[in-house]
């Protein structure tokens, strides 16, 4: 069973309606220019409401609107969007807030808001330029696990620098993530000790996770060809189907 998370912020009645599809709606209904004024903030926990998010982002500029994304039952999914009055304010929020610890002990992540396909393409391009000896790819994660749960689970292998959890347009986990460690030795340890490990779920079920090194499709193709041939540009994205 992965660790339970006890947020330090009490739940208040939120004016936000049940908005399972709001995440996709927000991104589909804004222009490219306005997207640059929108900040996507994640991992603040399920107890955060609209006012909590507004207080968190208020020091960085004039807030036009903010939304906490919720499931069909009205429960917070731990992420949301903040719209600022200018691009500069949004950029200031991202630089100041990204990877900082907030009052409930969680590490929050702040990014420029993008459509899911654009966000994943940028993410893959980013990882293609990194030292992937420090990065592992994990799949078959329980759907209810968030970034902090994953970080806590892999902390036994070494210091975790970042976790990128893939989600669908409704903010629901797709059960796979990239985990970046401070040292390559920690990534090797994660593969050796965590691959094919069975973990518990809050629903009383169990699942077997798979942990492997982060591999580009082009690299995987070359392995199959015995090192011959080269990958096309369309292959230069992470293979998420090991």
Automatic annotation (TrEMBL):
Entry-linked SUPFAM superfamilies: RNA-binding domain, RBD (SSF54928)
Top-level taxon: Eukaryota
Keyword Lipoprotein: no
RRM domain segment(s): 37-115, 134-216
Gene3D superfamilies for this protein: 3.30.70.330
PROSITE patterns, per database record: RRM
UniProt keyword annotation of Repeat present: yes
Entries under Pfam families matching the protein: RRM_1
Alphabetical list of InterPro entries matching this protein: Nucleotide-bd_a/b_plait_sf (IPR012677), RBD_domain_sf (IPR035979), RRM_dom (IPR000504)
GO molecular function, one term: RNA binding
Keywords, alphabetical: Repeat, RNA-binding
Protein name as it appears in the record: RRM domain-containing protein
Organism for this UniProt entry: Steinernema hermaphroditum
Lineage summary: Eukaryota, Metazoa, Ecdysozoa, Nematoda, Chromadorea
């Amino acid at each position: 069973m992965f660790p339970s998370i006890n947020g330090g912020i009490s739940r208040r009645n939120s004016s936000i309606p049940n908005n399972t599809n709001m995440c996709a709606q927000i991104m589909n209904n804004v222009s490219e220019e306005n997207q640059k004024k929108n900040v996507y903030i994640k991992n603040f926990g399920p107890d955060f409401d609209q006012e909590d998010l507004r207080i968190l982002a208020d020091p960085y500029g004039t807030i036009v609107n903010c939304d906490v994304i919720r499931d069909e039952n009205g429960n917070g999914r731990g992420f949301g969007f903040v719209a600022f009055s200018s691009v500069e304010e949004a950029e200031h929020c991202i630089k100041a807030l990204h990877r900082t610890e907030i009052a409930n002990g969680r590490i929050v992540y702040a990014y420029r808001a993008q459509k899911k396909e654009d966000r994943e393409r940028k993410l893959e391009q980013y990882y293609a330029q990194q030292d992937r000896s420090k990065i592992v790819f994990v799949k078959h994660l329980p759907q209810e696990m968030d970034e902090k749960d994953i970080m806590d689970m892999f902390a036994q292998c070494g210091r975790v620098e970042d976790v990128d959890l893939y989600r669908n347009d409704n903010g629901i986990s797709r059960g796979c993530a990239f985990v970046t460690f401070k040292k390559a030795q920690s990534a090797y340890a994660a593969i050796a000790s965590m691959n094919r490990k069975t973990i518990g779920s809050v629903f009383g079920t169990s699942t077997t996770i798979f942990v492997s090194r982060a591999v580009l499709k082009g690299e995987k193709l070359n392995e199959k060809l015995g090192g011959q041939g080269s990958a096309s540009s369309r292959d230069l994205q992470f293979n998420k189907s090991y």
